[in-house]
Amino acid sequence: MEFEGSYPIGNVWLSDTDIPIAIQLEAFSPFIPLEAGDSGLPATVLHYRFSNVSAQQQDFSVGAWLGNAVLPFDPKPEGKRINEVYVSPTCAVLHCRAELATAASADGWGSMSLALLGQSTRLRPRVDASNDEVRAHQLFEDDLPVPRISAEAPTAEPLVGGMATQLSLAPGESVELHFVVSWHFPQYSGGKVFFSTMENIPNLSRKRRFYATQFKDSLEVARYVERNLKRLAATTREWVATWYDSTLPRWFLDRTFINTSILATQTAHRFEDGRFYGWEGVDSCPGTCQHVWQYAQAAGTVFPELERLTREHVDYGIAYHDDGSMDYRAEASSHGDQAVAPSEAIGEAISAVDGAAGTIIRVLREHKHSSDLQFLRRLWPRVRKSIEFLMRLDRDGDGLLEGPQYNTLDATWYGKIPWISSLYLAALAAGKQMALDMNDEDFASRCEEQLAVGRRSFVEQLFNGRYFEHVGDTAKPTKVDLQEGCYIDQVLGQSFAHQVGMERVVSHEHSVAALKSLWRYNFATDVGPYREGFTGVIGGRWYAMPGEAGMIMCTWPQAPYDPSGRLQADIGLGITSEGYLNECMTGFEYQVAAHMLAEGMVYEGLSLTRAIHERYSPDRRNPWNEVECGDFYSRAMASFGVYLTVIGYDYHGPNHVLAMDPKLQADEFRTPVVFAEGWGTYTQRRNTAAMTVSLVLRHGKAKLRRLKVRPAANQEVLNVILNINSLTEICQWEMLDDGMVCIDLGSPVLLSADNADALLITLEHLDSWR
Per-residue pLDDT tens for 224-264? Predict the structure, then answer.
């Protein structure tokens, strides 16, 4: 057997010298970037291809079976399981459901289905109600041509059903079969709540999943997939082909996109009102936690609708307070033993400062990945107040935050903390950019003034010549104080500024110094010796084992760490927040890798990304499950930020502006790009005579008015020519201070995949005119 994963498609090849039939399976759930509805279908497509590899005709049967697992919990309510088979000229569907003694609660138990689609051969479906193991020959005993067959069993007993079809293949002949497994579990409980830490969501037991607003049961889901299979399969395959149609290394494309699969796990939910809800990891830590999900860059580009809904209806909806603060876990916000005293907090909300700043930055990201200004117009008054809330936490006006700062390491820190203050500076830069887009020039000026002060203070007060240090609060001697520690997120604000396409908040010089220190002191080709020899921090989970490479969260290269008298905040299961400092967590590592790439440290950024890729190689771990506090941990979607940085992507949908500045193979470069309403392939080629840039839409549409690209070094641009659909014109252009060229396409150019539109731009150099 061989397996190849190209998310969201998995391919399996089965062959045996003793069996004359070779089998290929293509399995996927529909996945179409920007189409959250179709990408959230509760269905998996199993596309089989059977080939006769012998010299004789082969007659054989293909069957499938499904257990009725509608009631998986104990004690099981009184009632019965029911399996039904529906047969039509185009498909056969096994539908598994339950009927309970209390009819009013029946909807909560849901249903599941197995469908065989589009068969012209004679179907022989069978439903088996026995409690015995189902064997293949049992499925093929009877010919059951009636349109509906049912079998029943008490809810306490198993019930299995199946279907089969007879095939005959000549030598060398192949045939394809399409199976669909669908499910429909509309409610989150049937009288009790299974996910106890979701109980803080009001009326959870009466909420339904989003897909329940589209389909009444799994049978309807299966029929929808049947009617739309050609489109769903073709567009899913088109995305995979587009993603891998790149000059970037295959391993890099795998690792940076593979964590998007987290959105298809129990980590992610969507309620009937459209609300997106995410655990930190599978059933682990509730509330779409701001300071965890802020690292996860994937959804903001691939499914921006989900992030816009979360900003608008959660962060600036149910979690928002009139003073501008936000509950960092929405209804689930709680600091437990780490809660700050009310007298120390400005607002009544329980707010994590890092998450609040990161959420402001994400509003800018969601705004830029919209097609117009409406999203930001609706949110701007509240976003402005949340920026003012952070400004009030800067009590002495030096551009750095003071006071209690609860954060993603599950403790309240005090003093002047580089990574949290850098996020504050990035929030100010985001506020300035959004204010300008909203024509709020007075507030833009306020943000700029505070940002200018903060840039100076950040270096003057926190930079030790090699990296940025936490300056603890001497009045809080028992609280976490990193002392002279070199912490992984110390310039996180600048890293996020690169991700969202903002002005600098920490200079290139000081950012590079900090990143070089992290590379020198925190990155280990083998984390084992460090963990064994360091005694300052107790504990820590082994996400990177001895013999594996990774970036350790915090090291102390200048002076030994003295934890005596410090509060070891117990967060449960014997884990302390200070133990985190010994760990290698991929979400943090990815943001550092992305930042390194953005600052020109290409070798270091790629090496760190590769170290994670090797830790999650199939012979070591599940490549799709990067663990932190829980399986399929959401912070791991920071890997997509590494991709965005490598391609140098910056996009502003309402302004119709795209910038591309690849960090690898820039002379011959090709990669996928995603806009607000479409996606396609970007290609650039550079030589001494000219630079050519092309953009081909594969799905949806895109509107562009300006394009920013980087010519080869020392090449003077003399002329820029636009060609779209055989129409040619000369473009206005401007050389920017950073070496990029900004090309004005005149009025916005609309590209549509339906029309097979393609855009080509040629930048002619001096050499081509000699």
Answer: 999 999 999 999 999 999 999 999 999 999 999 999 999 99
Single pTM value for the model: 0.93
Torsion 326-328-331-336 (CA) sign: negative
Q: Give the residue from 121, 126, 150 showing the smallest Cα distance to 139.
A: 126
Structural contact between residues 180 and 114, judged by C-beta atoms closer than 8 angstroms: yes
Is the confidence at residue 426, as pLDDT, over 60? yes
Q: What three-state secondary structure class fits 692?
A: strand
Q: How many of the other CB atoms lie within 10 Å of CB of 240?
A: 17
Rounded alpha-carbon distances, angstroms, from residue 340 to 69, 117, 351, 414, 666: 46, 59, 10, 11, 50
Q: How far apart are CA 406 and CA 344, in angstroms?
A: 12
- Helices 639-646 and 250-257 pack at an angle, to 10 degrees, of 130
**DSSP assignments along 478-533, one per residue:** TS---TT-EETTTTHHHHHHHHHT---SS-HHHHHHHHHHIIIIIEES-HHHHHHH
Which one, of 737, 721, 741, lies nearest residue 729 by Cα?
721
In whole angstroms, what is the distance from residue 300 CA to residue 40 CA? 16
DSSP SS3 for 457: helix
pLDDT tens digit string along 33-69?
Answer: 999 999 999 999 999 999 999 999 999 988 888 999 9
Burial grade of 189 (CB within 10 A; 0-12, 13-18, 19 or more): middle
Angle, CA 252 vertex, CA 247 and CA 257 arms, to 5°? 105
- Euclidean distance between CA atoms 514 and 537, whole angstroms: 22
Q: In what order do the strands lie in the sheet with 43-52?
A: 2-6, 9-14, 21-28, 43-52, 174-184, 111-117, 91-100, 79-87, 148-154
Q: Residue 446: its pLDDT value, please?
A: 98
Measure the CA–CA gap between 754 and 759, rounded to whole angstroms: 14
Classify residue 511 as left (phi > 0), alpha (psi -120 to 50) or beta. alpha
Token representation of residue 395: 């009590």
- The whole-angstrom separation of Cα 302 and Cα 640 is 10
Q: Give residue 266's pLDDT.
A: 92
Which tokens go with 259? 């964590």
For residue 321 the two structure tokens come to 């307070």
Residue type, 319: A
- Amino acid, single-letter form, for residue 311: R
Q: Cα–Cα distance between 313 and 320 in angstroms, integer?
A: 9
CA distance 330 to 107: 28
Q: What is the dihedral of CA 582, 585, 589, 590, to 10 degrees?
A: -170
Distances (CA, A) of 148 to 84, 93, 106: 6, 10, 21
**In 10 A of CB 121, how many CB atoms?**
12
Residue 711, Cα to own-chain centre: how many angstroms? Answer: 32
Give every CB contact of residue 755 below 8 A, 6+ residues apart in sequence: 725
Strand, helix or coil at 681? Answer: strand
